[in-house]
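User: Could you check the structure of this?
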Amino acid sequence: MVAGTGEGYVFLAKKLYGLLLIILGFVLTAAGFESNAPGLTALGILSLIAGAILLALKIIRRNEGR
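Assistant: Sure, the predicted structure tokens are below.
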């Protein structure tokens, strides 16, 4: 079980940071579209991508033992 290992906190951190980046990405992207600011929109999209990558890495790492 992952929770019993020392890496459990790393998995939890990646999951939480990934979800936080995805939420932040949606907010920044929406604000960028609303205010017609391409830089803010790009930052939001990059945040969405980073959050998705963190969640994908967590899932891949969890399924390595199978």
